[in-house]
Structure formats: C-alpha cells, structure tokens
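User: what does the whole thing look like in 3D?
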Amino acid sequence: MNAIETKKLTKYYGKSRGITDLDLTVKEGDFFGFIGPNGAGKSTFIRLIMGLIHKTSGEAVVFGKDVGDSRPEILSEIGYMPSESVFYEKMRVKDVLKLSAELRSKNCDKTAKELCERLELDVTKRINELSLGNRKKVSVVAALQHEPRLCILDEPTSGLDPLMQREFFNILKERNTQGVTVFLSSHNLSEVGKYCKNAAVIKEGRMLVCDRVEKLGHNGVKEVVLKGAIGLPSSEYIKNVKNTSEGISFLYNGGARELLNMLSTVDLKDFTVSDPELEDVFMHYYSKEDK
Amino acid sequence: MTLFFHELKQNRLSLLIWSGVIAFMTAVCILIYPEMAKQMDEINNMFANMGSFTDAFGMDKVNLGEFIGFFSIECSEMLGLGGGIFAAILGISVLSKEEKHGTAEFLLAHPVSRTSIMTQKLMASVTQILILNLSIVLATAVSVLIIGVDAPIKPLALIFVAYFIMQLEVFAVTFGLSVLLKGANVGIGIGIPLLFYFLNIAANMTDKLEFLKYVTPYGYADGADIVAENGIDLTVLILGAVITAVFIIFAYVRYPKKDIA
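Assistant: Here's the predicted 3D structure for the full assembly of 552 residues, as structure tokens:
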C-alpha cells in the first residue's frame, strides 16, 4: 500500500507558483527524504497533504483516501511536525501534550512520558519559557505520542543539538522498523543520506528526480579531482568546477571514454574519480541552469 | 468538546476583566441614581432641551426621573457598548488568532474537522457572551436591591434580552468577516460595534436617516425605545436575526475551504 500518492498535484497561490505537476509515491514502511532548497515547494506539498491548503489541480491520496474528502480520517493516522514549533504560549508542556492527545481522543500518557524522558524535555515548563530547541522537542512528542502510521516532518532537526538529533533519528528508525512510514523534508543532505531509503529532489515546484538514496549518488555523475592541473578543456558534461590549491575538482556526467580522452589532453600529477556525495549531486541538479 | 473547554480556559482572564469592569461601571451608575433623583427636575429639564443631542440618545422618549428611564439611558449603555466590543473582539479573533499566532498548524493537524472546530469555538464564544451578560444582570440586581428602588421587571428583562441578541449579531458579523479578511485584526473588530452604535445615533437624530435603524443591531437594542414602547421592535429584531444567520452560514461555508497561512 502507498502511504502517500500524488498525481500531477499542482498548487498556485493566485498567480505565484507553489508546486507544479508533482507525481510522488511513498510506499508504506518507507523512510523518505524530500529535498529542496528554501522556496522549492516542500512545505507547500506537505501542507497540501495535511489539508491545510487546497490543491489547484491533480490528485493527492494518503493510505488510499483522497486528501480533500476525508480529512479527520487521514489526520488520525498522521503525526505532523510543522517547520515552526508554535504552541499556546501560556500553557505548560504537559497540558499541550494532553490537549493534543484529547483532540485525538486517545490516551497517550505512556508514550508521551517515554518520549519526554528520551528527549530530556521538562513537561512542567510553560511554552513561553522554552528555547527553540525545546519547542522542537514538544513538537516531536506531539507528533509521535499517538503512534501514527505516517510521520510527516517538515525540517525537523533545525534547532536541535547534535545529541538530540541523533536521539530523534534513533526514535524514528525504531518506529520505521515497526512499519511506520517516515516522510522527512530537509535541506540537510547528510541526514537524508544517512537515514533515508528513498529520496526526491524538487526545484522550483517541480520534481527533478526520485530514487533510492544510494542510486542518487550513482546516476552516472562522477566527482573528478585532478591534482596539479591548471586548465580544463571546455565540455558540456562538466559542472560545478572548483579550483583548489591542489588542482581542480568538478562533476562529470558524460561517458567514461570521453572522460579518459579528455584527461589525456590535460597536464596533471594525479587524479581520482569517485561517486559524489549527496551534497554534490544536489549541487549538480541546482547548478544545471547556471551553465 | 475538548476545544470548547480549551477555548474557555484560554479566554478566562479576558472574560473576567471585561465582566468585572462593565459590571462595576453599571453598578456605580445605578448606585448614584438616588443622588441624581433628588435633583431630577432640573436635570430632566436640561436633558430634554439639548436639541438633537437629546434625540440622539433617546432622552426625549423616556422620563429620566423614573429609575427605568434613567437606567435605559445612563446605565445600560455600558453593556450596550462594552458588550458589543467584547463580542466583536471574540468574533474577529476566535478563528483568526490561530493563524495569527501560528498555532493553526498545530491545531489543524489533529483529526478534528474544521466545521467541528468552528462549532466548538462558536459555542465557547456564545457561552462567554452569556456569562458576561449574566454578570451584568447580577450586578444590576444587587445594586437595585441596595438602593431599594422600585424597578419594573419587564422592561429591564427586555433590555437585557435585546442587548444579548445584539451582541450575538455583532459576534456573527465579525466572525464572518474574520474568515473573509486576510489578517483580520482586533482593530477592525472593534470598529464594527462602534460603527453600528453611531449608525443608531444618526438614525435617532433625524427622520431622514431613520432607515439606518434596520441596519444596525443597536436599532432593536435601544434602551429608550424598549422602555417607551414596553417591547422590542420585532421587525428590526427579525432583520437582525437574518443578518446573524447569513454571516454565520457564510463563515461555515467559507472557512473549511480557506487556505491556512
């Protein structure tokens, strides 16, 4: 079964673009990364799925149910962490969590307690006394305490310290092993590379690529480093050229023979050819139009 | 019902302050009546001869020398204007504050339909308006007992009923507007009852503007008229009920389709 499935999903805010013709499928049990720079439409997509905003055209289905029609039914299966963690300022953390549980007509005391202990969250504090990181933790607990089938997390780690980020991902991995689908939007590529099974890259509201995370690094693009080289012959396959003190590095998406032929014409001491990190792939996609 | 109680809890301090202040001012006004009554002949003459100012506040219609006349002109205005502003603040903010403060994303991520959210918030608001009005009724009753004046029950009750319905209408209008306007704020909210209030004053002042009575809820919630006629003007009241219904229905149709910022 698919946790999320969209077909030609489009959202315009008046005339300005949100997302355009987005086809995306997230299988149940997946750990899915949704990558894109600020303003690419990540949050627009998520808010459409959550029913906060309404599509202009296309289709969006969660667990086989159309997003437009059966909102409460869908939302009872989802744990959502918005990109900003805002709660009722004067309430205490435990009251916010209790309110959230009551709105779901569910007793979540046990899971909430466990999560708060793991994240070292003081539930007796008032929201307006909390730092950004601690508000994020409240958001994590509110999104996970009712044990949802699908977690939708919009840039969840910003504001969390590295130790808490690790604990947070440990919790997500445990849930994922139990069959929970995790959908994570991020512009932090190393965390997507580390934890996600599949990922999609979007740019200016459109899908660029969607594949297994390992494959995204193996899509024919090679990272080439030439030590001791000074100049490069111009080639349409070369992207993202960086001049360093040791030489030149660039991304190459042409054929192997052409690369070897080209290298034979360059004066160099040493060279390496490797699969690029996800970061470099990302740069590759985003620098396409700069060329 | 979770959200209903949550809403009441969030607003309890504001409700307490508004009820307290209006009840206090109404009580003070009633308590000075015996003092005023002693010099009432002069005052009555003065008030009756201020030309259009006299008309504006309906002082030509009632006898200020009687308690009920004095109450309808001097005291009930506190509830008329104060209650109207309170209702307007509730109406304009009860839904839009979630977006303004950024809590909408938290609230709407829960499996509660927007219609249910509206209904619970609407009920919580009506409950608060009712509590405010009951506190003023209580303050009035206690003050009347203290000064030991003979107060006729029927016109008093009618004034309170009319004011309560008027506040519901102000609430409905601002509630509907809050769904329509992007960035609806308390300023716009407070402007609505003030506008209604002055429309009624204008309607009282000259016959040419009398039609304005049918536009504003202060047209049927006019203490002096109620005392003079010993009843509420039903035509204006029914018109008010229609306006109330239209704005509430509009909000119910529009809000579920709204894109939450």
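In plain terms: The longest helix of chain A spans residues 162-177. The mean pLDDT of chain A is 88.
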